[in-house]
Write a structure and sequence with these properties.
The protein has 16 helices and 13 strands. By secondary structure, it is of the alpha/beta class. Among the domains are: 202 residues, Rossmann fold; 89 residues, 3-Layer(aba) Sandwich (Rossmann fold), CATH 3.40.50. A 6-stranded mixed β-sheet has the order 4-5-13-10-11-12, sandwiched between helices. The chain has a 4-stranded parallel β-sheet with strand order 8-7-6-9, sandwiched between helices. α5 packs antiparallel against α9, α6 runs parallel beside α7 and α10 packs across α11. The protein is globular, with a radius of gyration of 21 Å. The termini are far apart.
């Protein structure tokens, strides 16, 4: 692993050789002591593969569409020969009609629902599986509101690992069904996600399982940053001015910020997009901390999470330090939206684009629309929105639409459409 120089605690700045500490800084503890993977960037600047990727005229010109096309920027010297489903290579759509509606120059939507288990969480999971294999582990564990758990259960299904999943009492039925079909051992804890997380942490320590839960292992953010690398490449490194993404534990937004920062450090882009995190008002623990942050110490401000967006219903975010510091360094910001705005956004995206996204994905869109309504969005910007999960993961959250019950009669069809012309 010569590509990795060391792991750095983002709170106390202590450095650890790779392998000395696996999860978090012993001095700062599991909440504040998140580690960041530091690479040999001089070596990376000389990487022929990195230059090859940067020189591609189009994302489609390069055969490898998965996250492993970015191997030079991942913490493995070479790809481990364990077969997993392809993660990454998700579409980035341009929607001129939505740009005109919002009054911006360009608008892009990155649809992560096309990943193997239907969410952005799939980007981090292969790194957890490969690391567990390197360490000789026999079992994997994950606490999740649903998406990270489904990702681990699904991607590990073809491996020999035993998989243990901890979910909260209110996990959506569709997500539980997804977990069951993959064959994972599921523990539905009669408590919140935050309590289920702590129980999974204890179980991992007690039984020696590799822990893939968000905000615990430094490799997870490395997988999450591939979304930023992919957006950059799909746009030929001509990046948007700002990017909106939903935030729960904070691992995804931390990865996105790091990905753009590394591209700038390597000279592949001149400036980084402003990353804007969007939280549900009933689960805005990261935003609350960010709003009070002065560039020094991060002080968590936990809440009791209540929102329809179950994927980001996190009251005690485990990656809060990275989510605050990295966005601060990026020059980004946070905004919160109501459940009513989230529900409206689900329908808005679907009817305007044909993409059915889950509540967490719609949260990012709701944040963009709110900033536009409030006049907080520059009218001459290029904007991207990341939809983090497929709507089929929680279809009930979309609410009830109108369904016309009719007998098999053309007259009833005419009556239901209020006399609108059927003939074009």
């Amino acid at each position: 692993m010569g590509r990795v120089e060391y792991l750095r605690c983002i709170s106390c700045n202590r450095h650890y050789p790779l392998g000395e500490v696996e999860y978090t800084c012993p001095s700062c503890g599991p909440r504040m002591g998140m580690l960041d993977v530091q690479y040999d960037y001089d070596r990376l600047r000389r990487s022929s593969l990195l230059k090859q990727i940067a020189s591609q005229k189009s994302f489609s010109d390069y055969a490898e569409k998965s996250i492993w096309r970015y191997l030079p920027l991942l913490p493995f010297e070479k790809r481990i020969p364990t077969r997993l489903l392809q993660v990454g290579g998700t579409p980035l759509y341009r929607f001129p009609h939505l740009a005109r509606r919002l009054g911006v120059d360009e608008l892009y939507i990155k649809d992560e629902g096309g990943n193997p288990t239907g969410s952005y969480k799939d980007r981090a999971t292969p790194l957890a599986i490969y690391r567990a294999q390197e360490l000789g582990k026999s079992a994997l564990v994950c606490a999740s509101t649903g998406n990270a758990a489904a990702s681990l259960a699904g991607l590990a299904a073809m491996t020999e690992f035993d998989t243990y999943i901890f979910v909260p009492h209110n996990a959506p039925t569709a997500k539980l069904a997804q977990l069951r079909i993959y064959g994972a051992t599921i523990f539905q804890v009669d408590a919140t996600y935050d309590i289920a997380y702590d129980l999974a942490l204890e179980a991992a320590d007690q039984f020696g399982w590799f822990n893939r839960s968000d905000g615990i292992h430094p490799f997870l953010v490395e997988g999450n940053k591939t979304g930023a690398l992919e957006i950059a490449e799909q746009l030929a490194f001509d990046l948007p001015d700002c990017i909106f993404v939903a935030v729960g534990d904070g691992s995804i937004i931390a990865g996105i910020c790091k990905g753009f920062a590394e591209l700038k450090s390597l000279g592949l882009i001149d400036s980084t997009p402003q990353v804007i995190g969007v939280q549900a008002q009933g689960a805005d623990a990261v935003k609350r901390v960010f709003d009070k942050y002065d560039g020094r110490k991060v002080v968590p401000d936990d809440v009791t999470a209540t929102t329809i967006a179950d994927s980001i219903a996190v009251g005690k975010p485990r990656d809060v330090v990275k989510a605050v510091k990295y966005v601060w360094e990026n020059g980004g910001s946070y905004v919160s939206v109501s459940d009513a705005e989230i529900r409206e956004a689900i329908s808005d995206i679907a009817t305007a684009t044909g993409i059915f996204t889950e509540p967490a994905g719609a949260t990012a869109w709701a944040g963009l629309c709110k900033m536009q309504r409030n006049g907080d969005l520059d009218q001459a910007v290029r904007v991207a929105v990341i939809l983090t999960g497929n709507g089929l993961k929680d279809p009930e959250a979309a609410g009830e639409g109108s369904v016309h019950q009719i007998s098999p009669s053309l007259d009833e069809i005419i009556a239901k459409i209020d006399g609108r012309s059927l003939l074009k």
